[in-house]
Write a structure and sequence with these properties.
The protein has helices spanning 18-27, 42-45, 59-64, 84-87, 97-116, 119-127, 133-138, 158-169, 197-203, 223-227, 246-254, 296-312; strands at 2-5, 32-35, 51-53, 70-72, 92-94, 150-154, 173-177, 190-192, 206-209, 234-237, 260-263, 283-285. By secondary structure, the chain is α/β, with parallel strands linked by helices. Helix 5 packs across helix 8.
Length: 327
């Protein structure tokens, strides 16, 4: 049985290290592990591949891969794999949402504190050598407490579940929306269905977008939903860039209709140096760093090696994607 790893990205951390494939080969000696440094040999290697680790594949490569049974994505989002050749076939897709969930959740909480305590403003004042205590207090939005505030989650997957747990421990009220509210609240104080998203925007002090990217979630934070937010509320996006209508968010911040926002993901990355988003007031930008950790490939290995054992034993896989829903 052959496992083909073809994961190539200009950002080094996203590339599977050599030890990953070497360790798999040692732990699963009956497996033929091929680890490609780039995409140049994918066409040559794919025809006899049974299992693949990648976040994208071309339609013609799917057609050529007559033995392919399972694709695992090192990412949580799998929209690049949701192509007719895969969706309409028997190939299983799994993702790495359990790898990234807890790490991204930490980032969400960091952003909540940064917005609540006006940390970006303090940094700007420090750079100007200005003792800005009065200024930070007098300029709205004011520094506030996190305990007692309402955090609204859109998405209760691996990220949302962990955010809810931490937020509750901090004394926050947590409300959440999920596609199937009958699956449970995951610790949230109140749960809403997909037709009740207005309540998340209306009630929350911090709206956190942690939903997968689908056609139904595109621009879920738009001019109408942002208009429902309280004037001292903040929006946080750690899901996918297209979840937010950037122009609507920028207008709301410039006109001070909401207090602030923190965005880790954008429709096109890296964000263009000339993008007007860089200069939007009260917008904290992190450069898609929410999932970064020095333990990321150890976390990947723990998940993948367990899933590989399950696959070889004919057991249910962790992180299996519903190809019709796209997540």
């Amino acid at each position: 049985m052959k496992l083909l790893i073809f994961v190539h990205h200009p950002f080094p951390l996203w590339n599977a290290p050599l030890w990953f494939s070497q360790r798999l080969q040692k732990e699963f000696p009956k497996l033929n592990v091929a680890h490609l440094p780039d995409y140049s040999r994918v066409d040559a290697e794919i025809p006899d591949t049974d299992i693949a680790i990648t976040w994208s594949i071309k339609p013609e490569q799917v057609h050529a891969a007559k033995k392919l049974r399972w694709i695992h994505s090192p990412a949580a989002a799998v929209h690049t794999l949701i192509i007719p050749e895969i969706v309409n076939g028997d190939v299983i897709i799994t993702n790495s949402r359990e790898v990234h969930g807890a790490v991204v959740a930490e980032h969400v909480i960091a952003l909540v504190f940064a917005l609540a305590k006006k940390i970006p403003e303090a940094i700007r004042l420090q750079q100007k050598h200005e003792w800005g205590q009065k200024r930070m207090w007098n300029e709205l939005p004011r520094v506030r407490e996190v305990a007692g505030a309402t955090l609204g989650l859109i998405g209760l997957g691996a990220i949302g579940r962990t955010v809810a747990k931490i937020a509750k421990a901090l004394g926050m009220r947590v409300i959440a929306a999920r596609e199937h509210p009958e699956k449970g609240s995951e610790g949230a104080d109140q749960i809403f269905g997909p037709t009740q998203l207005d309540e998340i925007f209306r009630q929350s002090d911090y709206v956190v977008l942690a939903a997968p990217m689908t056609e139904s979630t595109r621009a879920i934070a738009n001019s109408a939903s942002i208009a429902l937010m309280k004037p001292d509320a903040c929006l946080i996006n750690v899901g996918r860039g297209p979840l937010v209508d950037e122009e609507a968010l920028a207008a709301a911040l410039r006109e001070k209709r909401i207090a602030g926002a923190a965005v880790d993901v954008f429709p096109k990355e890296p964000l263009d140096p000339q993008s007007p988003m860089w200069d939007v007031p009260n917008l904290l930008i992190t450069p898609h760093t929410a999932a970064l950790t020095d333990k990321i490939w150890e976390r990947h290995y723990t998940l993948y090696s367990e899933n590989l054992r399950r696959f070889l034993n004919g057991e249910e896989l962790l992180g299996r994607v519903d190809k019709q829903k796209g997540y």
